[in-house]
Design a protein that fits this description.
Number of domains: 2
Structural class: alpha+beta
Strand content: 15-25%
Number of strands: 10
Shape: elongated
Helix content: 40-55%
Length: about 375
């Protein structure tokens, strides 16, 4: 935006309330993306704090004051719990409301847009799940806390690290979530991929890594939701109302919340995989191919048996029913072979006779033998 455009914008903002509100919000958004470009790789809460401090400095505040610095995280916390595409705009609306609430009330469209996005955050505050929203949109800020919490809440987590896996588990790692309502359990598939560096004979190599295993949640209550969130998420938290563990998994609008007494790692193993299979597997993980929620399992099968083997390594194997079918066919074929062998043994003397008497064979082929009048002593006359 050049200087002339800025001057026109400022003049218009004086006389046009709607434009004035959008102009203020637009400046906040520009500041957000400017900080994001200058300091890439951070969570959105970091940029929102920087924008707020810049806003306070423009108002004449001393942002080197420790009290103002301490206020930045709390002031922008709830806005940091909104989706990435809206968080900067949400901060602009929030600051506009604090500065000129009577003016903002005239912009009904802006208020409706803001309320639609901020309402889930307010509801999350009320039901004690706002930390899940914060972790969803600010994953780096909580990585170490998530790791410590995971190790505290999940028993036998060492199996994952022992076999080359990484913690905490991410949303992309989640596959089938199988609910057994009779046993009140949930079994959760885990798939992890990475490129590992190994050293052989003094040279370093990048090799594909594939880890596969399961989590088991015991004594569960669960709820499935439809959401507008398209992220791949997986969170563990304390359920403040009951003191139990709360697990939340989400992928492409499908979400499940599980409250359980205990979570443990059932198994986790490294699986050998080729380069092409590795690439296909990563594409499938990124596309969400494996994620599904199944709460309609047959009582004759446990959820663990249904999901315990990854589909990628089943392509060279056959199922038990297929094996039984093949076994039945082999038995049937063996019977047929035995019948043919008996039949051949019975007609062998006749074949030997025909082989030693070509005249009889020729007469039979030329239909010169009358079977009704034929008897054991019938002779074939040579022509």
């Amino acid at each position: 935006m050049n200087i002339f455009s800025k001057v026109i914008g400022l003049v218009r903002a004086i006389f046009d309330t709607e434009y004035s509100n959008e102009y203020f919000i637009k400046n906040i958004e520009d500041s957000f993306y400017k900080h994001k470009k200058e300091f890439p790789g951070n969570d959105q809460h970091v940029y929102l704090q920087q924008v707020w401090l810049a806003y306070m400095a423009a108002k004449g505040a001393d942002i080197s004051d420790p009290n103002i610095k301490m206020a930045a995280p709390g002031t922008t916390y709830l806005v940091a719990c909104t989706p990435p595409l809206f968080c900067a705009r949400a901060l602009g609306v929030f600051l506009l409301y604090r500065e000129r609430p009577e003016v903002l009330k005239e912009s009904r469209n802006i208020l409706e847009e803001f309320n639609k996005v901020i309402l889930p955050v307010i509801q999350a505050v009320e039901n004690g799940t706002v930390d899940l929203l914060y972790r969803r949109y600010n994953p780096k800020s909580n990585n170490q806390d998530d790791l410590s919490f995971f190790k505290k809440m999940v028993s036998d987590w060492q199996l994952i690290e022992k076999n080359g896996g990484t913690l905490p588990i991410k949303g992309l790692n989640i596959g089938l979530i199988a609910i057994d309502e009779e046993k009140k359990t949930a079994t959760i598939e885990i798939r992890q991929t990475a490129k590992k560096d190994i050293k052989e004979q003094g040279a370093w190599y990048h090799v594909p890594y594939y880890g596969y295993g399961h989590l088991l949640c015991e004594n569960i209550k669960y709820k499935k939701n439809k959401t507008e969130i398209k992220n791949a998420d997986f969170f563990l938290s304390n359920n403040k109302s009951s003191g139990n563990i709360k697990l939340t998994a989400n992928r492409d609008g499908q979400e499940i919340e599980i409250i359980c007494d205990k979570i443990k790692v059932l198994d986790f193993n490294q699986i050998n995989i080729g380069t092409k299979e590795f690439k296909d597997l990563e594409d499938d993980l990124n596309s969400g191919k494996f994620f599904s929620i199944n709460n309609n399992l047959k009582k004759t099968k446990s959820n663990y048996e249904i999901s315990k083997k990854p589909k990628q390594i089943e392509k060279d194997s056959i199922s038990k029913s297929q094996y039984s079918e093949l076994e039945d066919k082999f038995i049937e074929q063996e019977k047929e072979v035995k019948e043919y062998r008996n039949f051949f043994n019975e007609i062998s003397p006749l074949l030997e006779k025909l082989d030693s008497n070509p005249e009889i064979t020729k007469a039979i082929l030329e239909d010169k033998i009358n079977l009704k009048s034929a008897n054991p002593t019938t002779e074939v006359k040579k022509e």
